[in-house]
Amino acid sequence: MSPVEFQAMTDAATDKEPEDTEDPLEVERRFWKGLRGTMDPPTYGADIVSTLFSDADALSWNLNDLNTILRKIDLPGVTQSMLYFGMWRAMFAFHTEDMDLYSINYVHTGKPKFWYGVPPDAAPQLERAAQSMFPEKHHECHQFLRHKTSLISPARLKEFGVPFYRAFQKPGEFIITFPATYHQGFNLGFNIAEAVNFATLHWIPYGLKAKVCKCLPDSVRIDMDSFLTKIFEEPQCGPELMGDDPWIFSCTCGKYCSSNNHHTEVEEQWFECSRCKIWAHVRCVHSDLADTVAEDLPQSLLCHRCLAAGDRPCSLSSGGVGRRSGTASKSAVRSSGGKRKKEAVVSSKKKAAKEPAIVMSPPKKAKGASKSNEVGAITPKSATKDKAAVRKYLTVKGSTIRFENMEAKVAAVEGKYIRVHYKGESADNDEWLSITSKELRQRIVAVEPPAPKSKDSTTTI
């Protein structure tokens, strides 16, 4: 379908698009009020790899030629501009960008777009709200919001206490979404928009933590180790992008910082890789040298990426090492001549121990039935009738579920799904679980029904 044919289709639609003079908030109210399951879905021409920018157009803002560090890799549909043809009510559901990247969006012509954005620090709240609203989708895929099929009204966002912002984008205007920012929206009529992803050094910590949908074979994945190495292999990324003397700290422990940070704090002793020039902890990569003073460390050390690649260390003209004690500075050789130096503050604070992930193992099989103790707990190791009781109590609000290393309460029941609240955890970590799940039954050690109310209690009218 050509753009002319698409516009003709939108003009022929029975549901007339809003007038240009209509108040945006009134248009918003009309949009949500008109949503119903029986309506004819609008057509949205999305994800068409192309551009309307020419080589001579807006050199700094040409979406098809953004000079960012993401150009180190080639990802169709991510590093290349895509066109979007919209019509009245054509919508895009809540999602974050692939790998939680930045995005820049431009409306070339036509009617405006209406946007909703949730700040990154409120992303867990939105995810919990979506999990509560769409438990079956969450059961099928924990990253179901990346499917872009879940629309949430502002009224429901307010109901769940999710903060959000509105934006009204007119033709000729740009909208930029930041890493891990959930956004959704709709079009007010026929328009042509263009969008592309990009990255800065600020994005890298988000990229290292980004989750991907595992049920879609074409989910975008970026090998962050390889990506970080490429940043320094080609110096033409330019000082205008990474500073006059760019550097990155990225270690196996998950710690990340870079030269664009205003305040740099890296715990423990750290070193610069002789090969890729990325910094890492000595203790994490070379544990045998963890207690060696900086002056006695080898002049050539490789990071975990270069070690895995089988590279051989090259000699340094001076040591690139940071000291642990007190506040010290590190100098690194940044060129073959060894003349360029940089300074960074090293914090003396010790790194907090990372809590290990709790792995639930199934209970050992026991001969015969093993009914519970005096508090009335029932274990899944008992006979068939007791297993039925386990399932019964799982669907009772207030029941206690005991796993091998933790305890949870049944906070809500919805059909064959229960929402569990883990003891000592924030409500943000509540989870919807299927009571028919074999994996859940294997994890459960015991189930206790809610404690009965005291017989001595009286009601005063």
Automatic annotation (TrEMBL):
Pfam families from the entry? Answer: JmjC
The residue stretches assigned to a coiled coil in this entry are none
What Gene Ontology terms describe where this protein resides (cellular component)?
Answer: chromatin; nucleus
Molecular-function GO term, any one: histone H3K9 demethylase activity
Superkingdom, taxonomy of origin: Eukaryota
Q: Which stretches does the entry tag as region Disordered?
A: 1-25, 316-357
- Domain JmjC: from-to ranges: 55-215
Which biological processes are named by the entry's GO terms? regulation of gene expression
Annotated Basic residues bias = 337-352
Name of the protein: JmjC domain-containing protein
What's the source species for this entry? Answer: Phytophthora nicotianae
